[in-house]
Design a protein that fits this description.
2 copies of one chain form a homodimer. By secondary structure, chain A is an alpha/beta fold. In chain A, about 50% of the residues lie in helices and about 15% in strands. In chain A, strands 2-1-3-4-5 form a 5-stranded parallel β-sheet, sandwiched between helices. About 5% of the residues of chain A have low confidence. Chain A binds a DNA duplex through helix 7 and helix 9.
Chain lengths: ~200, ~200
Amino acid sequence: MANILIADDHELIRDTLGAYLSGLHDFSIFTVDSLEGAMVELKSSTVFDLAIVDYRMPGMNGLDGFALAMRRFPATKFVLMSGMAGSDVALKAMELGARGYFPKSLSAEMMIGAIRLVLSGDRYYPFQLVEQTPTDEAGNNFRNLSDRETQTLRHLCEGKSNKEIARALNVQEVTIKLHVKNMLAKLNAKNRTHAALIAREDGFC
Amino acid sequence: MANILIADDHELIRDTLGAYLSGLHDFSIFTVDSLEGAMVELKSSTVFDLAIVDYRMPGMNGLDGFALAMRRFPATKFVLMSGMAGSDVALKAMELGARGYFPKSLSAEMMIGAIRLVLSGDRYYPFQLVEQTPTDEAGNNFRNLSDRETQTLRHLCEGKSNKEIARALNVQEVTIKLHVKNMLAKLNAKNRTHAALIAREDGFC
DNA sequence: TAGGTACCTATACTTTAGGGTATATCGGTG
DNA sequence: CACCGATATACCCTAAAGTATAGGTACCTA
């Protein structure tokens, strides 16, 4: 019997995913709604084999909280779950020692397979993310953006200034301004903040 | 037997929520992963009593797609579901004719109750949202922000400029600049775009 | 080869954002 | 009462963002 902790601030997901996994005879499921709650459970007498932690959750603060939990409870295998985080976050999590990354685009059946994989000691990283590693950012075709516009948007989604983006892409700042302007028009955004919000809303970045 | 359509781009949620609701003997569940898919299903021979539609999904474009679907299929009761949309979106959806708004913070049991309520002809609006109507936005205590800073951030999360926020809050632009500056410091954000991203990341707005 | 598209750069300009400092009111609290 | 925090405003300044126009390269396609 494997003890699994699910940490997600959406009660609906805790309930339904928990119920789904509890249906499997060899899983014992516990759920919490925050990283803090996860810490409390992990510190309890129950020994957890696996913790599935949502990326967007009170206390997470990016990957900081996740990394902290992993350091504090090295006996438990940690998996990051996210509805929309990009491959860069997934990779970073894996580098920090995560045993897997579960996008919510996974089917329930696939997730069970991934859980069993991780429990067996292997690590799980979805192949779809391998295909679009951060180094080759192209091929996304998000709202008819060109390659450069796509890259610009990706940096924009990290709150960077035009100057910082220009440095990162090795071009002049004016060029980035142009990309930003054209991008705003394509996204129908009022300004860069709006664009970043739209991008995030639509699962880009 | 009530036919229910679930439209959500996260396969995990479709699977687990679908399985959960299918466990009830009087619900017949269909799932799709986009608004377009929902349109196809709704146009089919099956008569749907209820459609539960996720706010963040390909084709939605804010509430535009939702409104379009409701207009096109008036015989079906529509409910908006969201993981994080604020009360303003929920209210707007209700005004557009939605029969209910389901935050994902709802428990599975509560959702079943809400579904039965809607199927019976009533409308469902979570009380938690009534308490924090857009008019009195206070009481959130997000990262030690003051009331005004909180309101400012809320507008910031819609991509508004300082001038627009000032108009909305009936103060001078300089005042908003002050709030923004103090807010950036409290959120540890580099600029307004970063702040908006952080706020969204943490479930605020 | 001509036209189209993406890309890069430049100049010039206006608007917005952001920081600093100072002043003033108001409500609560030691 | 004196202090403090939140709110509001003003003035000043620099930096960043955004718009407009124009000129150039490269590549691909009709």
